[in-house]
Amino acid sequence: MSTGAQRRIDVDEIGNVTIVKFVDKKILDETNIQIIGNQLFSLVDEERRPKIVLDFTNVEYLSSAALGKLITMDKKVRAAKAKLRLCCIRPDIYEVFAITKLNKLFSIVDTQEAAIQSF
Prior knowledge:
The protein has a single domain (about 10-115), classed as Transcription Regulator spoIIAA (2-Layer Sandwich), CATH 3.30.750. The chain contains five helices and seven strands. It is α/β, with parallel strands linked by helices. A hairpin with a 2-residue loop joins strand 1 (about 10-15) and strand 2 (about 15-20). About 45% of the residues lie in helices and about 25% in strands. The protein has helices spanning about 30-45, 65-80, 90-100, 100-105, 110-115; strands at about 10-15, 15-20, 25, 50-55, 60, 85, 110. It has a five-stranded mixed beta sheet. The chain has a two-stranded parallel ribbon with strand order 3-5.
């Protein structure tokens, strides 16, 4: 297994919307979180994607460090005048967003379809 540049996210385009799916079921490992962060940030910083949907279908667990990356991502998206949506978050993970009030920070919708239509 190569380290470093391994893709931790899958990126698709639907029209002018970028769909990001996470490869890992559990986003816990500090190194992976760093890589995920860098790969997410480059969508905004380097590729200037205007509309980004983060699809959490595969994700069963997120650490607080992963939440930190999402908050940074949100700041970058806002600074770039882009838009960010989160979708397909499991109820137990959504609970963490609710407890931390992050459900107020992020636009969270149920389905990828709804996320795409919300732009």
